[in-house]
């Protein structure tokens, strides 16, 4: 096994992948709670909030699909770093959103960043030797993060308002950015040279 393959199979890489995946979920796990807060605290209509969340999810799906197609041709580490930076900036922009239109624009940016991060996580997870265990660990991380976020969201909203959720998501995205060094530039850099005849 090459040094690069050992690196992508390391526990630190798995931790980085889990961190990137949970922040890529954005508001997905707390949308019912957050939607109610937008109505109660800012007076946004349910229709407007539905459009905001639908836009974020649609952007996630589009960015994930297009990014997955681009994986063989791009530097994945830099791509992940750029996508996480978009997530940080999008969450900061969400803090300043005073209308459904500005919130929609901010969450659109976050959705694009989230989908791109997801694609990098899936592509990197596919390089690991124990793929089943890797995806199981990532899913477990998603569920644990969801439990923590859902249980703490009401307290955060009461203590700091809607902005506290976006501050948390922005900080977590910045922390996940630190794990970009664990992402191989390309598949070949993790797999090493193919043996003759392959």
UniProtKB/TrEMBL annotation:
Molecular function via GO: transmembrane transporter activity
InterPro entries in alphabetical order: MFS (IPR011701), MFS_trans_sf (IPR036259)
Keywords: Membrane, Transmembrane, Transmembrane helix
Any single Pfam family the record assigns to this protein: MFS_1
Domain of life: Bacteria
Organism: Paracidovorax wautersii
Record protein name field: Major Facilitator Superfamily protein
SUPFAM superfamilies xref list: MFS general substrate transporter (SSF103473)
Transmembrane segment boundaries: 12-34, 46-67, 79-98, 104-123, 135-156, 162-181
Gene3D superfamilies reported for this sequence: MFS general substrate transporter like domains
